[in-house]
Structure formats: structure tokens, C-alpha cells
Design a protein that fits this description.
Elements lengths: L8 E7 L5 H12 L7 E6 L5 H14 L3 E5 L6 H11 L4 E4 L5 E2 L3 H11 L5 E10 L5 E5 L5 H7 L12 E3 H6 L11 H11 L4 E13 L1 H7 L2 H16 L5 H16 L2 H11 L3
Parallel strand pairs: 1-2, 1-4, 2-3, 6-9
Antiparallel strand pairs: 4-8, 5-9, 6-7, 6-8
Length: 278
Amino acid sequence: MEKRILKPYSVLMSVYKGENNEYFKASMDSLCSQTYPADEIVLVCDGPLSEELNKSISEYKDKLSDVLKVIQLPENKGTAYCANEGLKHCKNEFVMKMDSDDVCVETRAEKQMSFLSENPDTDILGSYIEEFKSADNSSIGIRQTPTTHEGIVEFAKRRAPFNNQTLVYRKSIAEKIGGYSNELIRCEDYDFMVRMLMAGAKSANIPEVLVRYRVNKDNLKRRRNWKNTKSFFAVRKKIYKMGFSSFWDYILPCIGQFMLFITPSCITGLVYKIMLRK
């Protein structure tokens, strides 16, 4: 498909002071090398940043000029707040999610925007991700997600039906549902996906890896700590109370999550690899 008929899109990303500068640069470089580049990248700085990060942002600003729009928050507000604040500044109807330590394959935007042009009724779109070890760049596995709208809706009753790092969605519907919830400490992305679906958003996933997701020791610890487990319970309770899922859709995944929390980490890692559905 000719690039000239593809719709424009805005990239939405946030960064905070604890981010590794080299990971951030790898993420930005992957955006700059897209075969169908964005005409706008909205970068929300979640509070004061490190000197290294500020220097890198200044360099990308010189390189990208008006394409890069930097929004500086005076203090750290968290992921959901940053997403909502950044959304206000996105000029395009289609918003592409990007995390500041992940890497897009160079054809990500072209393939997603081509899909949206060929399927104009699609409102929220994702793809597969490949998880890789940050230490040596080796592959851990591929997280596959349902590709049809019906499969996505059914899957969403118990688990996040999209890889959050791969999302492209319509700004108008995101604003209609009130954006991301500031009530949730974590798992706000899962809640956002479900509310988009409940609002009537037509969905799809491209069955191809378009983003590489960086995994390090901190990621693995966060997956099985108590704070993350409580957030998992909270989002599923909210989804159940909204009437999207059944009682058993709420209870069974919570039991599974709790079992993973109390299970030794070596077994947890094995179970997670199985869950990747490689």
C-alpha cells in the first residue's frame, strides 16, 4: 500500500528519572527509523529527569525539530496521568503507544497504519511482542494475543487482550471514556483496554511481532511482588463490577495470580514462559 494514503499518527511516550538513558535512546532511535515515520512524537517527562536523559532529549529535539513535542511535568505523577496529559497534546486521531525502554521493528508503524487503512472500522489495534533479555539481547519468547474482535473480547474477561506496548487507538474514543484511570496504581492499561471495548471500539491484533519488549531483573521482580498482585486483584474487581466479566472470570485469574505470588521464582519463570504461548 502506498504510504501517501496512510493516515497520520501521533506517538505517545512518557519517561521518568529512573529510566536507563541507553534504553531510552534505543527506543527513540527505533521511532526515528520507521519506514512510515510519525509526524508527531509527544514525550511526557514525568517530573525532573536525570542530566543524561535531558541531554538526550535535547539532542532528539534538535534532530526532529517540531515533530518532537516535549511536555514537562513539575513532579512525578505516574503512568496514567502522563498518558492522559500527553493525549491532550496529540493532534492526530490515531495515537500510537510507545514505552521508553522498548524497541519497535522498523515496519511497525507502516504495518499498523496500513491495517487501519484497509480496515477503517478498527478503533484499537495491537500486535504480538517478543520479550528479550536486556543483558544480552537474547529472545525469551513471543506473547501472542487473539487476532479477531470476538476473540479479543472473550480473552479480555480474564487477561489483557493486547500487548500494551503495541497499541494504536483512536483519540476520540479514548477521550470519550475519560482516558486512563488514575484510581489504579498499576494495571491501568488493562482497565483502559476493557473500557475501550465496552465503549464499542472495534478491535484487532496483527499476528506478527512489531515491538520488542525489554526484560530485566526489575521486570521479573515486579511481576510477582505483592503490590503488583494487589493491583491485579483491583483491576479485575473493577472489570467485574463494570459488568464486563462474570464472577468466575474475576475469581479464577485472581487465584492463579496469588498462586504465582507464593510460588518460588524458578517455577514462576517457567509458568510465565508457558503463558507466552510461544
